[in-house]
Amino acid sequence: MTFRIVGEGPDDRPRPVTGRWRAEEGGRIRVGFAPAPDAPFELTVVSREDDLLVLAK
């Protein structure tokens, strides 16, 4: 599944970065990017409704 986050680009302007996520146990998801400048990380799913997913670190 696709995961998108907005971060800072090299010139400090916002830049979307697209990665992939997969479900883990305990209501968590694991997110990774390719090529991977950072290690994959996990987030906790707080709630889910229709097309809105609320996450916490």
SSE layout:
Layout: E1 2-8, E2 14-24, E3 28-32, E4 41-49, E5 52-56
How would you describe what is shown here?
By secondary structure, the protein is mainly β. The chain has a domain at 19-50. The protein contains no helices and five strands. The chain has a five-stranded antiparallel β-sheet with strand order 1-2-3-4-5, with no helix packed on it. The chain starts with a strand and ends with a strand. The model has no long low-confidence stretch (mean pLDDT 88).
The separation of the N and C termini measures: 19 Å
Write down the overall geometry: globular
- Give the C-alpha Rg: 12 Å
The proportion of residues in beta strands is over 45%
Number of helices: 0
In brief, what are we looking at here?
The protein is an all-beta fold. The chain has strands spanning 2-8, 14-24, 28-32, 41-49, 52-56.
Based on the model shown, name its key terms.
five-stranded antiparallel sheet; mainly beta; 57 residues; globular
